[in-house]
Fold these 2 entries.
Entry 1:
Amino acid sequence: MATSTRRPVIAGNWKMHLTVAESVSLAAEIQNRCARFRDVDVIVAPTALAVYAVAKRLADGPVAVAAQHCHGADSGAFTGEISPPLIAAAGARYGIVGHSERRQLFGETDAGVAGKARALFDHGLTPIICVGESLAERDAGQTLVVVERQVKAALEPFAATEVPRLILAYEPIWAIGTGRTATPAQAQDVHGAVRALVARLAGPEAAAALRIQYGGSVKPDNIRALMEQPDIDGALVGGASLTADSFARIVARGEEP
Ligand code: 13P
């Protein structure tokens, strides 16, 4: 395990999978399997349609709910969108912003992501802010340039004292859904650089408190080595969060789930 005092945080991003009924049932199974792990924050992110029903089913805790996406405004004529106050009222406590699929497929920008993170925060939700480079950017030696630009933009609207209450997720795009995980050392290199950047931007205390998740082909058999890295504080899990068994084994981080 990482030696820091930061509380691990493991989130399952269900993306565009599962009906409302399937989501509630998976959430209940995860709650059942994960309730005994009290040293970790566990989060599930169902589709927007299922956020309310899943949050209701999980009201007893300890598993919390995240939205996968939001608009930056509180309300308005934005057909198809959902806003932070609506997400909070539906029972979620977290919101994912800036996922690479949103950036790549739906044109989300660094500034837009920052505005959404701020809006979530202002409504009492914890933003999980995703950053990460493409394969072409990594091959061109641009990984830290890209990730640092994304992190800098995302933290722009936040005071140093607020930074510890955010979560960053480093998800190299080439590792998402490909089965090709970053090695623990590759991930640690970026996590360490991000924490050093946060120290420059918001001070060493904020940097020491901020939790940074890794995402990209996290599985039960690689979570332990990832979590052993000093700057990896958790995981944002896609495919392996879609069954209670594999997700519970990730939450267990090498112990018997
Ligand atoms: P996979 O775990 O399926 O690679 O997805 C990672 C991800 O995008 C989580 O947000």
Entry 2:
Amino acid sequence: MKNKILVTGGAGYIGSHTCIALHEAGYDIVVYDNLSNSSREAINRVSTLIGQSIEFIKGDTRDAEMLKQIFVAHQFFAVIHFAGLKAVGESVAKPLLYYNNNVSGSITLLEVMAEYNVKNLIFSSSATVYGDPETLPIDENSKRSCTNPYGQSKLAVEHILEDLSVSDQSWNLISLRYFNPVGSHPSGQIGEDPNDIPNNLMPYISQVAVGKLEKLSIFGNDYPTVDGTGVRDFIHVTDLAQGHVSALNYLEQQASSKSSSDTTSSVGFLPINLGTGKGTSVLELVSTFAKVSKQPIPYQFVARRAGDVASCYASADKAKALLGWQAKLSITDMCQDTWHWQSMNPNGYNET
Ligand code: NAD
Ligand code: UDP
């Protein structure tokens, strides 16, 4: 058995897929999630898929006492920190909730990690920290700026991690900046299950395809892009999950290459993009989805959505050079697997 990993937010969309990848790579995992945006059923299904039960603890990252109990009971090599709220619109309406949950939750977690001398962290950051990019593709040295409380909360945590790495060089802090995660596990058993009407494009398209929503509204067809619609770097969630395994391997290599007397870190704060490096327009995604699902996707063009940028895609070179990771799956794979999940589970996890 390899090292033990604490996965906060492991019942969520990306976390549940990463639990499978971690298990397949031989890691022992403990999932910690308050189920504020997920269901216990996701963990049950992950357990079925991997053929063994997962250790799940219901709890909040802001609850220091509960975290301490877990750190006393387990010797973790690292924490993968997915737990957070992620709806941009909601963050504008409820900024205190977002700062409290995402920033205070991360600080509390880091304090407990420090107390128990667990200093390896992989943090879920986002391409949103780049705001409206000055150049494309976006590399990790690009200027960071955010326009909404969700993005600000991610940026704030990145600043905290940077300051922490300066204050104490024994921390190893990887900030993975995800581009647009979509798709599902190929089994169709787990996937993205938005609570309400989806804000994001792919779950919206798939709910139109399955007949739950009538028509997609495409926000803007006058952007300076290939067809006037927004361009994004969609990445399959199983590729993304694999990126976390590669990041953990990197932390392990760094840990084993250090002599035992060396208390300084060779990692510090390390931001890494996880994207494919390729941009796809909204219309291109819609037409691929329609082809794969053999369902009509009615749409209408409406005004641009406030805060949206025209194009956003990653330079994925750093992930390849440092982690040896690159995305493998295509837009067709992403649509196929999303459709598989959506058509098998039209009401998400609620149906069972
Ligand atoms: P998700 O909502 O499906 O998963 C997040 C999980 O964290 C949920 O299970 C939720 O119940 C849990 N959670 C939230 N606050 C918590 C708290 N205080 N204590 C314990 N558990 C808590 O979201 P996701 O899409 O899987 O995203 C995972 C992470 O990646 C988030 O931090 C998100 O901001 C980030 N991210 C997501 C995307 C995306 O498009 N999905 C893009 C970039 C970054
Ligand atoms: N989009 C759209 N209709 C929707 C949801 C999204 O046209 O119902 C567009 C949006 O304007 C953007 C792209 O799809 O150009 C991706 O949006 P999403 O919210 O999925 O991701 P993000 O904005 O975070 O990149």
